[in-house]
Amino acid sequence: MCRHRGHVTRRPVGFLWRQEEFYGKEVVLADRELVEQEAERILEHAKDADVAFLVAGDPFGGLFVGSATTHSDLALRAVRAGIPYQVVHNASVITAVGCCGLQLYNFGETVSLVYWTDSWRPESFYDKILQNRAAGLHTLCLLDIKVKEQSLENLMRGKKVYEPPRFMSAAQAADQLLQIVRRRRNQGEEPGLTEDTLCVGAARLGAADQKIVTATLAQMTSCDLGAPLHSLVVTGRLHPLEADMLRLHAPDDALASLRLLDGS
């Protein structure tokens, strides 16, 4: 968040200094707590000054799990407060993922994978993947991030102590999917995915060091794509041209059992 005037409680560090030099404005780090729980602080300044809310990716296109919903809420708050706003669109992982070679109009509903805990292991995203695959469509999986999160103990005690940041990797996402496949198979269900289901892992799309790997679901659990942010695609029906593109990022054995269905 940058603004023309107003009080900044502490000087920005690192990349925020560079942002201030570039824009010639004061810059405040708008972390999750500020945007989700203290959004009125942003809107208060916008009543008598121009405020720019800078985000990674497209504001409504989604880059992080839940980001589009949060930004929609901020826009609605502005409207209700009588504050005009303008959206400047940017690149989004939802379109950038096309660089892996899968055609965007062959994607179904985008899903979000969240970190499991010992007592919370949701599987609703898995069923949506199956629905997409039944229609022959690919599924883009947005992977969870945990930034400025509190432990349950610190939350209950009201302590402003935060856990180290965590970013779900494509390997972790594949492992969760594989656990669901094996659990449902053990229960006698037809799982819909198998260890050989073809997936695409994508990391840091748009950056100079972006990395794309095509692998089976089982192979993806051991793929190291490096630093965040990661995404995972579970493929549906492949057009021959898509398969040729995926081969650019695949080890030979990843496509050994691939069967092509020309959907053109």
Order of helices and strands: EHEHHEHHEHEEHEHEEHEH
Largest sheet geometry: 5 strands, mixed
Q: Overall mean pLDDT score?
A: 84
Assembly type of the chains comes to single chain
Specify the helix fraction band.
25-40%
**Alpha-carbon Rg, integer:** 21 Å
How far apart lie the N and C ends? Answer: 46 Å
The best one-word shape is globular
What does this structure look like?
The chain is of the alpha+beta class and 264 residues long. Helix content is 33%, strand content 13%. It has 10 helices and 10 strands. The strands form 3 sheets. It has a 5-stranded mixed β-sheet. A 3-stranded antiparallel β-sheet has the order 2-1-3. The N terminus is likely disordered.
Topology:
Layout lengths: L1 E2 L11 H9 L2 E2 L4 H6 L1 H8 L4 E2 L14 H14 L12 H4 L14 E3 L10 H11 L4 E5 L1 E2 L5 H6 L8 E2 L2 H17 L11 E6 L7 E6 H4 L9 E5 L5 H7 L18
Parallel strand pairs: 4-5
Antiparallel strand pairs: 1-2, 1-3, 5-10, 6-7, 8-9, 8-10
